[in-house]
């Protein structure tokens, strides 16, 4: 598709995209970083990578033993 468009059309599309992006609201990283940190700390109790999975809910736990005679 890009090969079918002229350089002028490609530049026009790029300018339109940049106009859309400049309208997005921006938040300072100092505020956003604190919000992310607070959210992660609040959700840490539910995180199976930090807390682990209980034995009865673990789908990968062996359900029984294998005995080879």
UniProtKB/TrEMBL annotation:
Pfam families: G-gamma (PF00631). SMART domains: G_gamma, GGL. Belongs to the G protein gamma family. Residues 1-69 form the G protein gamma domain. It comes from the Eukaryota. One of its GO terms (molecular function) is G-protein beta-subunit binding. GO terms for cellular component: heterotrimeric G-protein complex. Guanine nucleotide-binding proteins (G proteins) are involved as a modulator or transducer in various transmembrane signaling systems. The beta and gamma chains are required for the GTPase activity, for replacement of GDP by GTP, and for G protein-effector interaction. PANTHER family: GUANINE NUCLEOTIDE-BINDING PROTEIN GAMMA SUBUNIT. It comes from Molossus molossus (Pallas' mastiff bat). Keywords: Cell membrane, Lipoprotein, Membrane, Methylation, Prenylation, Transducer. It is a lipid-anchor. This is Guanine nucleotide-binding protein subunit gamma. G proteins are composed of 3 units; alpha, beta and gamma. It is found in: Cell membrane. GO terms for biological process: G protein-coupled receptor signaling pathway.
């Amino acid at each position: 598709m890009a090969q079918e468009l002229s350089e002028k059309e490609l530049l026009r599309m790029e300018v339109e995209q940049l106009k859309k992006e400049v309208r997005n609201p921006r938040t300072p990283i100092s505020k956003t970083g604190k919000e992310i940190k607070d959210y992660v700390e609040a959700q840490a109790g539910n995180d199976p990578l930090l807390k682990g999975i209980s034995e009865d809910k673990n789908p990968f736990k062996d359900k029984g033993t294998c005995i080879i005679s």
